[in-house]
Specification:
single chain; alpha/beta; five-stranded parallel sheet
Length: about 375
């Protein structure tokens, strides 16, 4: 959680440090970027830089371990059997462990970490009241106070409205750092009150270097994985472990049944069963699965057109022949398949009936798989 541990973002890091050195510290800043770009780590490092400029470098350790008393973390939470009106304070211990273990984690990763992945995390009005209460107290160390809000796009309307006024006119020496992955989902009134810090997509070289130095991958594997990660370190890290074994199983079931259903309508019942099972997953997991499927189809396309140096992932499920499957994915159907997957993810994100969405996707896939190459 310091500048040295942030992957890439060198220009932004330098700009932020210079703003502290020159005393140009905006009271509300919006760190915008994907989770795999290190936006939360950058916000924490920035808070550390500000406090160290006044209190010396000794303060950095408390900030980087997420233990500084003048920093309040707000993040999506959900109710449990024991906690009916949850706030971030109820989960702060778990949040510290989560961020230190996985600074590139997503909302789904967080909900899975606290074992409530089937629920939807939000930042509620009770959390907004906790922020107001925190800011009403004097600074513990007589310096700046920070409110770091991770995923402010998950604030409900009541919470957002309560924070608007204090966000515009915060107490003296108070800094709001909002860390968003979906800037487009924030209220325009919130965006207008913040100075934007736009993080950049990581380069393939930056990701490969991290995988080699931190994960011990050999250069060839690191290069292949970095190229396929679309500049997102979280995606790259996912592709270095075996976390996708469950997804592989369901993908293989899906394409096998979709292929056979075109000539044997009786197989449709298997696709119905498949859709029912996937729809029982948390919505975030459903979306992650569809993203995984998109990547598998892209890998098959690369295999079809003999771009072997870019193929980092091959399915190894028993009885599944990757070499025979790949030729069915080609230039005449890849765009349609990816578009259908994106559309399905979009509708699931907006709470459409997952069973209907996934079954419709499956029926369309049966046609796409049998489309002849141009």
């Amino acid at each position: 959680m310091n500048w040295e541990n942030i992957v890439g973002q060198s220009k932004i890091s330098e700009k932020l440090r210079n703003s502290v050195a020159e005393g140009r510290i905006s009271h509300a800043q919006l760190f915008s970027g994907e989770n795999g770009w290190g936006n939360l780590a950058a916000a924490i490092a920035y808070a550390s830089e500000i406090l160290a400029s006044e209190k010396g470098d000794a303060v950095r350790a408390k900030v980087e371990s997420l233990q500084h008393p003048d920093i309040h973390f707000s993040f999506p939470v959900t109710s449990t059997e024991k906690i009916k009106t949850p706030t971030s304070n109820h989960f702060i211990k778990e949040f510290r462990e989560f961020v230190l273990e996985n600074p590139f984690g997503s909302l789904y990763d967080w909900l899975e970490f606290v074992e409530v992945e089937k629920k939807q995390g939000i930042i509620n009005v009770h959390e907004a009241q906790e922020i107001v209460k925190f800011l009403s107290l004097n600074s513990y160390e007589g310096s700046y106070k920070f409110v770091i809000i991770w995923l402010p796009e998950m604030m409900n309307e009541a919470a957002a409205n309560k924070l608007l006024k204090i966000l515009e006119e915060p107490p003296k020496k108070t800094v709001f750092l909002l860390v968003t992955e979906r800037e487009d989902l924030l209220l325009p009134t919130i965006i207008s009150r913040c100075q934007l810090v736009k993080l950049n997509r990581l380069t393939d070289e930056e990701i490969a270097e991290y995988l080699i130095q931190e994960k011990g991958l050999n250069p060839n594997d690191a290069k292949r994985i970095s190229v396929s990660s679309n500049g997102n370190l979280r995606e790259a890290l996912k592709n270095t472990d075996s976390a996708n074994e469950e997804f592989e199983t369901f993908f293989v079931q899906w394409v096998r049944n979709a292929f056979m259903a075109a000539k044997n309508p009786a197989v449709l019942k298997n696709l119905v069963k498949w859709a029912n099972e996937i729809s029982s997953w948390p919505r975030e997991k459903q979306k992650q699965f569809l993203t995984y499927c998109s990547e598998i189809f892209r890998q098959a396309l690369l295999k079809t057109y003999r771009a072997e140096e870019l193929v980092y992932l091959q399915l190894g499920a028993e009885g599944f022949n990757w070499d025979k499957f790949a030729p069915f994915i080609h230039g005449a159907n890849i765009a349609e398949i990816l578009e259908e997957l994106n559309e399905s993810s979009y509708h699931i994100e907006r709470n459409a009936n997952a069973k209907i969405v996934l079954l419709d996707l499956s029926i369309k896939l049966t046609r796409h798989l049998h489309k002849k190459a141009a």
